[in-house]
Amino acid sequence: MTNKVIIRSAETRDIAAVLPLMHKLAEFEGYRHQFKVTASSLRTIIEQNNDTGIVVADSADAIVGYLAYYYLPFTYDLSPWLVIKELFVCANARNRGVGQALFAQARHLCASKGGHKIKWEVLTQNHNAQRFYQRCGAQLEDEWRIMSLRVPPA
């Protein structure tokens, strides 16, 4: 891998490279058996180019990372928040500034919409990711717990 990495919006030509990275993340985070993202669904997200998006880290020879995000259009302060759904960097591209560049792009995307906050979830046992985000200026929020509810199909 070369050292030059370009951070840019994903294009349809990137689907074949991004989908396997999503599979790797799903495997690592333990939801591979529930993973339903397809090339077609990625194409829709990329082509819609609205409040959901994917950014890639493009080296000269490969896509080495991606950021999947969406916006909460407004919150209690009437300001949009950017929510990071996934941030993944290939093992061979880690510790080379790729994750920091993707995270910096998340900051830029948030600010460009008039937002002032980025939110995301990180696995409790993923201490490497927690340290990475803290180096980027993030703080763990001890006062909140994530809750969820599975809703059966109607």
Automatic annotation (TrEMBL):
This protein's UniProt keywords: Acyltransferase, Transferase
Gene3D superfamilies named in the record: 3.40.630.30
PROSITE patterns: GNAT (PS51186)
Top-level taxonomic group: Bacteria
Domain N-acetyltransferase: 5-152
InterPro entries assigned: Acyl_CoA_acyltransferase, Diverse_Substrate_AcTransf, GNAT_dom
Pfam families: Acetyltransf_1 (PF00583)
One MF annotation (Gene Ontology) recorded for this entry: N-acetyltransferase activity
Name used for this protein in its record: N-acetyltransferase domain-containing protein
